[in-house]
Design a protein that fits this description.
By secondary structure, this protein is of the alpha/beta class. 43% of the residues lie in helices and 17% in strands. The chain is elongated.
């Protein structure tokens, strides 16, 4: 800072010219460069320049601008403004006290203020700086070091607005209760002037703000900027802290004041969120109206310990035969869905949500970094299948800033935990954590953290582990609820050994791997039997499913191996032909259209029919029609037996005989009548 700049800053400082006026002048200079160049041009008429200043600039800074024009130093204004911000920022690090007022204090008030400062600052050699600021409306604002005490009219209005926030909604206007609410709140309102620790922004950009002065702020704490925008502290350094901004970044600049709240980031929770679409901050974005809620939970909490957990044993049925039969998911499990782009990962999650209808399971779908049109289409699908009644969609689209994409899954998990601790079962889908990791990488690099493998920061594993560890099944004495997590990871060219996929695979309890080649070959869902696994296994299966699906994976593996081996041979024995036919039938019944989940009983019946070789002599292209007609026939004629299977979840011999009889009747009496007869020559 040159002596000339320092001298101009001293004039600004001593004349109590507000930072708001300085910023307003800067904005006008930036938005109208022609005017700025004319004012700086020494050859232009000075009287005309003064008329421009009198007409468009704030009152308290007009004389200062005229001085700069007279001294031909207006082109130094940006440096002067920058130096002024630096001076304001350094003030809070010194033993200074700043008293801001509208009307100068009386001697009696000044004496009391000094006594208060002596008590708070613990020393008498501080410097008391007096400033006038008419924007506070009245009263005083006293800043002692890095702590601020607000007795101003503006402060009272803000406190009252915060107090009534959430108590006045659309219904208040409709019913005319707003006057009564305001009257009650005014009568109960009591002004408090607790010390707020403050800081100033020293750098801002790309959704990140670096702040100086918040000496006691903690990691994850919410801070509020002067324009009302909120942020969260994510980086602690010796002299500054780094925070992410949730909104209104364009109104924040160097020198903007920041206030600690003392609160960690939280999420409003409640039953009213069911059936709604909200953003990462819990604000509804579906256009239906506000969501009433009186409770909140921190977005990040410590995962339940081992003592609080119970082993996973209750099935979370997806309605997808390929998954429920070979890779069963239990309530409280974390099962990864992994595969390349456009292989049906989201479809599996949506079908699972649709299948929870009537099963007393609450579903939460988290869209991270997706297109808004994709999320809208997904919500329409859920509504069409009457699944939105028990579902909440948390959306942080690709157009949202990285901080909102970062906190979206944590906010959704806080909502899931609210239901879990009430004893309810929750299914939560994170779609997808690859984009979540990319958002966190962007934030970390902007916070100047060192990049590691694939440019991700070293703590990216902790990012997902502390999220997914919160999914579990609680013991009855701790609530008895559960959170089942279905995280989704997108791979590049099937590379499951990349950094993020290997991280999430090691955190979860199994993975469903979807293969592009299978998908394009028409096998949908395109589940790769060899790479997919559920580490819970049969513990999350019903006895009937376990009995009928016991050898399914082995049969499919043998079929795949034999299919490759026999494609070069035309002379096959009957046993090999039978095994190939059975394998083809199994592959065919594992194909399942979108939005058509099967009940547990229907899945068991399909596997039972395949195991009893009812499908081996049916042409492959007709198997789907056969199974569809067979299930319809059994529902019409053997519904009591299907209900027995559904309720008992057991496949005993009498029930197996009844089903065998029903399938045999359908095949011999109905299927032979409906199938096409060959033409006579």
């Amino acid at each position: 800072m040159t002596d000339k700049i320092r001298q101009y800053v001293r004039i600004l400082y001593n004349d109590n010219i507000s930072a708001k006026s300085v910023n307003e002048v800067l904005e006008r200079f930036i938005s109208d460069p022609v005017m700025y160049n004319d004012l700086c041009d020494p050859n232009k008429d000075r009287a005309r320049k003064y008329r421009v200043i009198e007409k468009i600039f704030p009152k308290d800074i007009k004389e200062f601008l005229k001085l700069l024009i007279e001294m031909e130093d207006l082109d130094e204004f940006r440096e002067i403004a920058k130096a002024l911000r630096s001076l304001e920022i350094t003030d809070i690090n010194e033993k200074n006290a700043i008293l801001t007022y509208v009307t100068p204090p009386t001697e009696e008030q000044l004496t009391k203020i000094r006594e208060f400062l002596n008590e708070k600052m613990g020393e008498k050699d501080y410097k008391l700086i007096m400033r006038e600021d008419r924007s506070i409306g009245g009263g005083f604002i006293l800043r002692a070091g890095i702590t601020e005490y607000d007795w101003s009219v503006k402060g009272r209005v803000n406190q009252f607005a915060e107090k009534i926030k959430g108590k006045i909604n659309e219904d208040s206007y409709k019913t005319g209760n707003i006057i009564n609410i305001l009257k009650a709140e005014v009568e109960e309102f009591e002004l408090y002037a607790k010390g707020n620790e403050i800081g100033y922004v020293c750098w801002v950009g790309d959704g990140i703000a670096r702040i100086t002065g918040l000496a006691h702020v903690v990691y994850g704490e919410i801070v509020i900027f002067d324009n009302g925008a909120k942020g969260m502290v994510l980086d602690l350094k010796k002299s500054t802290v780094g925070g992410i901004l949730f909104d209104r970044e364009n109104e924040i600049r160097e020198g903007t004041r920041v206030v600690r709240t003392g609160n960690r980031a939280g999420m409003r929770v409640g039953n009213n969120f069911l059936g709604r679409v909200i953003d990462a901050l819990g604000v509804p974005i579906d256009g239906i109206g506000p969501i009433e809620s009186t409770e909140s939970r921190p977005i990040e909490t410590i995962a339940p310990g081992i003592v609080e957990r119970k082993s996973v044993s209750v099935p979370m049925e997806t309605g997808i035969l390929a998954i429920d039969s070979m890779f069963p998911i239990g309530r409280g499990q974390r099962e990864l869905i992994i595969g390349d782009r456009q292989t049906g990962k989201t479809s599996i999650a949506i079908d699972t949500i649709i299948n929870q209808k009537g099963k007393d399971v609450i579903c939460i779908y988290v869209a991270i970094g997706q297109k808004a049109s994709t999320v809208a289409k997904l919500v329409a699908t859920l509504k069409k299948n009457e699944a939105m009644d028990y579902t909440t969609v948390v959306s942080s689209t690709a157009s949202d800033p990285s901080p909102l994409q970062y906190i979206a899954p944590y906010s959704a998990t806080a909502l899931a935990e609210y239901y879990m601790y009430q004893g309810k079962d929750v299914l939560i889908v994170y779609d997808d954590l690859s984009k979540h990791a990319v958002a966190y990488r962007a934030i970390s690099l902007l916070l100047e953290r060192p990049p590691g493998r694939e440019a991700y920061p070293g703590d990216v594993f902790y990012l997902h582990s502390r999220l997914l560890e919160r999914s579990c099944r609680l013991a009855p004495e701790y609530g008895g609820g559960s959170i089942t997590a279905l995280p989704i990871i997108e791979t590049q060219a099937g590379d499951v050994s990349a950094y993020i996929p290997t991280n999430v695979i090691s955190i979860t309890d199994g993975q469903i791997y979807l293969e592009s080649n299978l998908f394009f070959a028409g096998q949908r869902p395109a589940v790769n039997v060899g790479l997919s696994v559920s580490r819970v296994g049969g513990a999350a299966q019903t006895p009937a499913m376990k009995k009928t699906a016991g050898s399914l994976r082995i049969d499919l593996s043998q079929y795949r191996e034999m299919e490759v081996f026999t494609q070069f041979s035309s002379d096959l024995d009957q046993a090999t032909k039978d095994q190939l036919n059975k394998g083809k039938a199994l592959m065919e019944i594992l194909k399942q259209p979108l939005e058509h989940p099967l009940s547990m009983a229907e899945q068991v019946i399909l596997l039972f029919a395949a195991n009893k070789k009812f499908l081996t002599d049916i042409p492959t292209e007709e198997i789907r029609d056969f199974t569809k007609g067979m299930l319809k026939y059994l529902h019409e004629n053997y519904e009591p037996d299907i209900l027995t299977l559904t309720n008992t979840k057991m496949m005993n011999d009498p029930l197996a005989d009844k089903l065998y009889e029903g399938i045999m009747k359908y095949k011999e009496e109905l299927w032979t009548e409906t199938e096409e007869k060959p033409e006579e020559k």
